[in-house]
Design goal:
Helix content is 20%, strand content 21%. It is an alpha+beta fold. It has a four-stranded antiparallel sheet with strand order 1-2-3-7. A three-stranded antiparallel sheet has the order 4-5-6, with no helix packed on it. Bound molecules: FE2/S2 (inorganic) cluster.
């Protein structure tokens, strides 16, 4: 069920919303799914030196990282340290910093510069077709 439909129905007529959920086999009390745009949309809204949450081509949660020189990468959106969302982090001096405990990662290699035994759970993918 789309979030727009859910919002309209829960405000306009809660009982109809409950019936619609019943018909669709959905839990009316389920939390809203987090909204993650596709990578291209996230990238379009991601200025240099920032990070954004996105949905990968396979439906996986990813983080789009744009370093200060404009180079963009797609990385898994789970920190290898404790699973924190890397999309909540930030970019500092070309490094992706996890907001949860502050570990720093090289977005081009996935290597953790704070703890040498850690690296991102999948190799970063550089986005080469980024518009200027
Ligand atoms: S979860 Fe990222 S640094 Fe701990």
């Amino acid at each position: 069920m789309s979030d727009r439909f859910r919002n309209v129905m829960t405000v306009a007529e809660p009982s109809i919303y409950a019936v619609a959920c019943d018909l669709l086999g959905e839990d009316p009390n389920a939390p809203e799914a987090p909204r993650r745009p596709p990578v291209a949309q996230a990238l379009a809204r991601c200025p240099r030196g920032s990070v954004a949450a996105a949905r990968g081509a396979g439906g996986e949660d990813v983080a789009v990282v744009v370093v200060e020189d404009g180079t963009a990468y797609v990385v898994p959106d789970a920190c290898p340290h404790d699973g924190g969302p890397l999309s909540d982090g930030f970019v500092d001096a070309g490094r992706l910093v996890c907001a949860r405990h502050g570990l720093e990662f090289e977005p081009d290699t996935g290597r953790c510069v704070s703890r040498s035994r850690l690296c991102l759970r999948a190799a970063p993918r550089r986005i080469v077709d980024r518009d200027p």
